[in-house]
Amino acid sequence: MTNLTDILHYGSKEYPNRTAIIFGQNKFTYDEVLNRASAVACALKSWQVKKGERIAILLDNSPDFIFCYFGVLLAGAVVVPINHMFKREEAKYILQDSESVGILTSSAYSEMALELNVILGSLKFVALTNKNTENAYSLSEYLDGKKHAELDISPKACEDGELAVFLYTSGTTGHPKAAMLTHNNLLSNAISSSKTIRVAAGDTFICFLPLFHSFAATVCMIMPLLNGAKTVIMKSPRPIKKLLRAIRKNKVTIFVGIPSLYQILAEMKLPKFLAPWLLRFFNPVRLAISGAAALPIEVFLKFEKKYGIPLLEGYGLTEASPVVSLNPLKGRRKPGSIGLPIPDTKVKITDENGTSLRAEQIGELCVKGPGVMQGYFKRSDENETVLRDGWLMTGDMAKLDSENYITIMGRKKEMVNVRGLNVYPREIEEVLYQHPQIKEAAVIGIPDLHKGEVPKCYCVLKAEGSLTEHQIIAYLKEHLALYKIPRRVEIRKELPKNSSGKILKRVLVEENIKNVDIKIKTSHN
Predict the structure, then answer these.
(1) How many domains does the chain fold into?
(2) Which residue has the higher pLDDT, 508 or 159?
(3) Residue 178 falls within a domain, yes or no?
(4) pTM for the whole thing?
(5) How far is CA 252 from CA 241, 258, 268, in A?
């Protein structure tokens, strides 16, 4: 295989009648997936979409997302997934920045899409997958086979080195940026990741994480299709009972989730007589994968003990397609570690001068391999900083141990400098997660007149929790050096998160900046 579309052509040829996608009561074979993706490509060609043009996909989790994704690729265009939870201005920014020429969406988002079409004036079309309207093109006619276009949709519509997807980062450092990923970037990453967890044709994945996100797109969509496996698509993991029923009914073998969900499953309390009932639902699962955010050690230990399923914590970033490392399925899984680099991927830890550091020394994690992006779209200045001699500078502070396992210490810009001493938020957070009454924790740095910076802690307590700020600080003093102790602890009902469940520390930082500004203005008045 040389590009992503080869996956569909191969599957249709080798096992046309094998189920590829399950969505509720609906099932689609590999042959049907190729036919429907080809129908989307034919529609795009008939609407004069040219090679290399960007086409936005604004859809929630459904088979249509997959048909549109591969349909755009078959047409030789570039996919631009948009977070379906975005408001109009957020979606407008993505469309403008990517210079997209069309939107593939559904009736659920048609109102916003049609508004954007009028506002921007640069789109060739808005097309709906499930409805006909005079203001939008209809994809349903093509998907249902009622309308055909006699166009050549050949396996070589695109090459491995050509751009396939613009994936926008979460914007932790300002406006989101489009990571330009080629067919080879994504295909090679899926192949290496498949080797790591030993995916087989008999596997069934479950996909409830949003497909617009890099983690779900590679692990829950591309990987199963690449290996002739099945994917069970769900719009949401809630209610949990519905998720558990889907696992049992479809004999899911690979469970892909995020830390917050594993925390819910690990702490799910049931009467003793119901425990076997719960475990029966998980019987078909042979392994679970955690990504998108740091997995607290306490959650890892509780989950594995409760369910007896290997929980593999990994690490990735959009700019690397996205998987970089994973704890091995066969071999030692180290709690708190993000595991070993996947095949064909190299990592190193460097200091501020770019010098490689020894084992256990903390520095910036750098990644090199076929999954590393081509750069950010229209960000040449940033590309020179982020990409150096083929190495991707991740911005994450980490360390390697003697066995090459990686441990993330926190974001480079999140590191707190207390009188010249480096304090890593992740270290404090791990201690907090070990407290039986703390559900979630986040640590940031705030300015301090005497120390330069000091840590500040945000906590969400469990339902039965009744801790005070002083009690939390006293607890931390038992486990950490005094210079690492937060100056303040703020207890909240919830913490701000993005669509992948990652706590948005930049929001907390911005809140602190505003509070400082308000205090300064008040004192001046």
Answers:
(1) 2
(2) 508
(3) yes
(4) 0.84
(5) 15, 17, 20
